[in-house]
Structure formats: C-alpha cells, structure tokens
Amino acid sequence: MAESKNSDEIWIGDVHVANIREENGHGERPFIVESPNGKLLKQLADRHAAEVWIAMHSDDITERELG
Q: Is the pLDDT of residue 26 over 80?
C-alpha cells in the first residue's frame, strides 16, 4: 500500500474507503484524499472538506477501486 505514515484511514462500516493525509508545506489544497491503494482521488483545502467529499463519494470510490 502506498500509504504515507501521517495518513488517516477512513472507514465506512467495515470498508476501508480512503486515506487522508496532509501535504507537506503550505498551499491552497494541503489535504490529499487517496484510495486505499494509494491513488490520488482529490486535493482539498481542509480536513473537514476532505471528510465530506469522501462521505459524498464513498459509493463511487468503493465501486471503482474495490470492484
């Protein structure tokens, strides 16, 4: 898994849906949402926005990434 040491796993029920990690440095989109296998899904300005994005797209993420 291409998961960074400082990433947090996001689970919905018993399904690992995504990881959120904070990008090093400063910028407009410092939070990275990755699939469980490390594929970049989205970059967002704050952690709350990342969590909301995952919640809104969890079905699509699991279908696309997990089959």
A: no
